[in-house]
Write a structure and sequence with these properties.
heterotrimer; A mainly alpha; B mainly alpha; C mainly alpha; A: mainly alpha; Four Helix Bundle (Hemerythrin (Met), subunit A); 2 domains; globular; B: mainly alpha; Helix Hairpins; 3 helices
């Protein structure tokens, strides 16, 4: 049963990704991406890493994709890229896709990989996770804070520049 | 095919689709979303392999990647907005000023 | 002391060269003449010390180079031969310096002239006092340089500058042979010290190298320096320089360097019969050819130039038959009378206000009596009239050319005697055309003819006296312990007296012939000249040797340099390669630049291609 669900979610993620290439309206593309992300959250849940699944939904879908949807709704999407959704590199791109995919699968197929370990690992539970995060990896925690600060500053700078242009 | 192979295949498949999506789609926002797809594929492979290795490092790394992705989107979308405001279009072909 | 002799003229060069222009003509004259005179005095002192010690004086100045086991030192060496040379060089040199103060009085580059003249003296002294072939070669090259500087002294005239270049370049061609000779000597004998080279050949076992090879190679160098065939072409052109320069360099000292070299290495030439034969033949032919050309020359200095070449030929004939001391004797007497002739010519040119063409002279004997008197004495000396100096030396040469067992031959004597006849003839022709007959100059010049100042005529008198009595000093006898005279075939010994008489008769015949043809208005000579126009043209054209060299060597070289080295080598190959490389770079840049389309999709596609390439690489290497 769990195997079937895992397979279902995995394939759903792929289908969502493929749809992104085909749909015309950017809003529909966003919805396909959301679907794909939700499927991935399902995969993580099936694997037993619930923390990551929750993060996926909260951060990726809840923040990143919402922001994207806002941006799509803000802009006028009826421009040349709506009618002609594909660039000039469609055929080379598809050829590249085939080659790259084949290369990856060949590499994976050739490398010795064990079967998936049992999901009864506790490293991905909340408490061990946060303990490890704040004890052993506190430096990266601080660095990410810096990164986020930088992002906030950049956003403000963009805001100021826009204001400057207007006046 | 066992789980690991399946999930790694899905992960690389998502990565390839995302990359090709950047190549073939014209709309800037769609290109951004395809880049997010790429990132998702990578996260999936990271989760798969670190769950196998039962490593705390893997979990932390996944979380950090989320944070970075969020920060990146927070900046990339305003940039796209500004560009679109300048050229009044979201078509990637309009931005060939660095030609030659 | 020997080092002092060499260094005094060098100080003169430095003082005159650096300070002369600022300190005025008086300073230049005093330094320029005083230092050579001082060198002459020092040379006399050194000579007396040498006579007292009865052994060669050796003085090492410093060690030049130490290469492995071999050390090259600058050593000065005074023995009989070099003492004769050093006294001639400094003595006649000082006299000519004094003469120059009068001759070059009105020249604007007075200081530069004396600087170069002192420089020449320095190098010449290096040449004659050096113990090693290396020092000699430094002096050899140095006098070539000084000669170039002095011949092209009035360098603003491109013809004169070209004459300087010709002299230097022709000399250098000969120097190639000299260098090869030096290399052979050094590689086989291991030394370049000339007394040691002679000693190596004097022992019972000869070294394992062909003495003739060395002999011929060194002789090639001598041909260039002493203007023998085929490298004689520079000396007539060298008359473009000031006349005292012609006297010093091209009569008394530099051109005799070749003779000195062969005489110095007599120890080698004694064992080189083939080389000696070559020297004798070339010497004889040169003497003859130059004399024939001199008969028809119309420039007073050119006649003397060809006469110099001819007399040098005589010296080489003497060297070729083994009479080294006699060659040096002729060198010694030639220095006196040739210098006197050249300086006298200078005095005539000075009197004529710069005119050098003999056809425009005449009747000068009353107006410039001192010049005439000294010129006449020197002419008689060169013609070989007894008891003047030239008679003794030339007669000895002809005697050994006839009778020496190491190369003497009757045809050599006959050629030499005929040349002596021509010598007497053309020299007296010069005397008659210049000084006798009706004046053929224009009114203006005739008015200006005046005797030269005492600084010039005084020197002329001294040289004329030396030309007259110099022959009584028997140099061959003095040098005999070092340069032995060759043995004379016994059955020819009784010819000595008759040949002497023949020599005197030849000289007198030449005098009579010249008086006959060129006395009065020289019309008889003109008529003979019209009868033999072909021969006259050949001789006036100097046998067209310059034209031959131009066609055979000059033009092909120019063609080669232009077509092959310039157009092909430089423009096509070198420039073409560089331009080709830049064109290639430009082409490559053009092709690679097409990647920059500004199109984002292309760039990402290239990222994809890169990822694929990395993965593919990892298959083979990971």
């Amino acid at each position: 049963m769990e195997q079937a669900l895992l397979w279902f979610f995995a394939l759903a993620a792929l289908v969502g990704g493929a749809l992104m290439l085909v749909l015309r309206h950017p809003m529909r593309v966003a919805l396909a991406l959301i679907a794909s992300m939700m499927s991935l959250a399902g995969v993580y849940a099936m694997l037993g890493v619930h923390v990551i699944a929750v993060f996926q939904v909260l951060i990726y879908v809840g923040a990143v994709m919402v922001f994207m949807v806002y941006a799509i709704m803000l802009l006028d999407v009826r421009d040349p890229s709506f009618t002609h959704r594909y660039s000039g590199y469609l055929l080379p791109g598809l050829a590249g896709l085939a080659v790259l995919a084949w290369t990856f699968f060949h590499t994976i197929g050739n490398s010795p990989l064990q079967a998936g370990a049992s999901p009864a690992t506790t490293a991905f539970d909340v408490q061990p996770f946060s303990a490890a995060f704040l004890n052993d990896f506190w430096l990266y925690f601080e660095l990410t804070s810096v990164l986020l600060l930088a992002a906030v500053v950049a956003a403000i700078a963009i805001l100021k520049a826009r204001r400057g242009n207007h006046e | 095919m066992n789980n690991t192979q399946l999930l790694l295949s899905v992960s690389t498949g998502l990565f390839c689709i995302g990359l090709v999506g950047v190549i073939v789609r014209r709309n800037l926002l769609v290109m951004l979303m395809c880049m997010e797809l790429m990132l998702n594929g990578v996260i999936l492979s990271l989760v798969t392999l670190s769950q196998q290795a039962a490593s705390a490092t893997g979990a932390v790394l996944v979380f950090l990647v989320f944070v970075v992705a969020a920060a990146e989107i927070a900046i990339a979308v305003p940039i796209v907005l500004l560009l679109a405001r300048r050229k009044h279009t979201l078509d990637a072909d309009a931005f060939s000023d660095l030609k030659g | 002391m020997l080092t002092l002799i060499v260094l005094l003229p060098l100080f003169g060069f430095l003082l005159n060269g650096l300070l002369g222009n600022r300190l005025g003509k008086a300073f230049v004259s005093v330094v320029g003449c005083g230092l050579p005179i001082l060198a002459f005095a020092t040379a006399i002192v050194a000579f007396q010390a040498f006579q007292a010690a009865d052994a060669p004086l050796v003085q090492t100045a410093f060690r030049w180079a130490l290469i492995g086991d071999f050390s090259f030192e600058i050593t000065f060496y005074l023995d009989k031969l070099s003492s004769v040379m050093v006294l001639i060089v400094t003595g006649v040199g000082s006299l000519i310096h004094v003469y120059s103060t009068g001759y070059m009085k009105d020249d604007s580059s007075y200081a530069r002239y004396f600087a170069y003249l002192n420089l020449f003296l320095f190098f010449m002294l290096l040449l004659v006092l050096g113990r090693s072939l290396l020092v000699l070669f430094v002096g050899w090259e140095g006098v070539g340089l000084a000669s170039y500087l002095l011949i092209g002294f009035w360098f603003e005239d491109s013809v004169k500058a070209a004459a300087g270049k010709k002299a230097f370049i022709t000399n250098r061609i000969g120097d190639a042979g000299f260098l090869l000779g030096m290399f052979v000597i050094y590689s086989t004998l291991g030394t370049l010290e000339m007394d040691q080279i002679n000693a190596a050949f004097a022992g019972p076992v000869l070294p394992a190298v062909s003495a003739s090879l060395i002999g011929i190679l060194l002789f090639i160098g001598a041909t260039g320096k002493s203007a023998q065939i085929p490298l004689h072409v520079w000396l007539p052109d060298a008359m473009a320089g000031p006349t005292p320069v012609s006297a010093l360099i091209h009569a008394a000292t530099m051109v005799t360097a070749g003779v000195y070299l062969v005489a110095r290495l007599s120890g080698v030439y004694i064992h080189a019969p083939e080389a000696s034969q070559v020297i004798a033949v070339i010497g004889g032919l040169t003497a003859f050819f130059a004399a024939t050309i001199a008969v028809v020359q119309t420039d007073i200095k050119k006649v003397l130039a060809y006469s110099t070449i001819s007399q040098l030929g005589y010296m080489f004939v003497a060297l070729g038959v083994g009479a080294y001391g006699v060659a040096v004797f002729h060198l010694y007497t030639h220095a006196f009378f040739k210098a006197c002739l050249f300086l006298g010519a200078g005095s005539v040119i000075h009197a004529m206000g710069g005119e050098q063409d003999v056809r425009k002279m005449g009747g000068l004997y009353k107006k410039i009596p001192w010049t005439f008197g000294t010129f006449a004495v020197a002419t008689a000396a060169i013609a070989g009239l007894p008891p003047l100096a030239g008679f003794f030396s030339k007669d000895e040469i002809l005697w050994f050319a006839f009778a020496s067992e190491s190369g003497g031959a009757t045809w050599l004597w006959a050629l030499g005697s005929f040349t002596a006849l021509l010598t007497s003839f053309y020299m007296f022709r010069l005397l008659w055309l210049t000084f006798f007959g009706k004046p053929r100059m224009d009114e203006h010049t005739a008015h200006h003819v005046h005797e030269s100042p005492v600084s010039m005529t005084g020197v002329l008198v001294v040289l004329a006296v030396l030309s007259a009595i110099g022959g009584f000093l028997s140099i061959p006898h003095f040098l005999e312990s070092q340069l032995p005279l060759p043995t004379v075939s016994e059955h020819l010994e009784h010819f000595e007296m008759p040949l002497l008489v023949v020599s005197v008769l030849i000289a007198l015949t030449g005098l009579a012939g010249a008086a006959f043809f060129f006395g009065g208005d020289a019309s008889r000579a003109a008529r003979v000249g019209q009868r033999f126009t072909g021969l006259h043209k050949l001789l006036s054209g100097k046998y067209y040797v310059d034209e031959l060299y131009e066609t055979v060597i000059g033009k092909p070289l120019v063609w080669l340099s232009d077509r092959i080295f310039l157009r092909l080598g430089d423009r096509v190959l070198i420039d073409g390669t560089l331009h080709g490389l830049t064109g290639l770079a430009r082409l490559g840049a053009g092709i690679l630049g097409r990647v920059q389309t500004g199109n984002l999709h292309l760039y990402v596609w290239l990222v994809l291609a890169g990822i694929f390439a990395c993965l593919a690489w990892s298959w083979g290497h990971v």
